[in-house]
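Sample 3 of the quickstart, ligand thymidine-5'-phosphate:
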Amino acid sequence: MMNKLEQIYEGKAKKVFKTEDPELLIVDYKDDATAFNGEKKGQIAGKGVVNNRMSNLLMQMLEKKGVPTHFVEEISDRETVVKAVTIMPLEVIVRNISAGSFAKRYGVEEGIVFDEPTFEVSYKNDDLGDPLMCESHAIALGIVTAEEIDQVRKYAFMVNDALKEFFLAVGLKLVDFKIEFGKTSDGTIILADEISPDTCRLWDVETNKKMDKDRFRRDLGDVEETYQEVFERIKG
Ligand code: TMP
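Result:
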């Protein structure tokens, strides 16, 4: 049994603890929710449980599809043992349908289905508001090498293919999502952080109802119920 030692990080949605093994950490998911770079704050009852369990299900599915992840073992409803990584300060975003900042930036409506998924990265830096980042700037700043960004892009599209199919099978369209990668002590790039309704846009295939954190961001109501329903659908 893995024990939680010293807390090394507390983010907006998770806490991270050391364990006896320097290669392993324990992540503890909170119900806290923020939006707009922390300007909007709230709680979504039960979110920590849904995000922990959902993320773990999805990461195990992705491992089978050939995407290496940080997942090791779920130890409680809210806690998971993960591989220790140094997180790359990049938010990797793939989009299948226009929404959110894409729709705003280009002045287009939400719901345009793209012929091919898009790939973009933002610089993960709260003080700067996570600005969109050119790949060559990420290389210039030493965040990634050209080879590493190619690997990240390849994994991101593999994740998109797998998640799109998985969610469609439970009546959800994968509009877009954000993932984060980290490097283990030997430099291997693996998928880290979480995959949940906080980090994906999911629309019901029949009604187009938003089934993700946009319900919280945009005060659409049914927030808790929606997180529960997404989890009910995917756990099968
Ligand atoms: P965006 O349209 O606001 O750029 O969001 C794209 C995707 O990234 C969407 O699925 C929500 C997710 N996301 C996060 O996971 N964290 C964030 O801080 C933001 C802004 C978006």
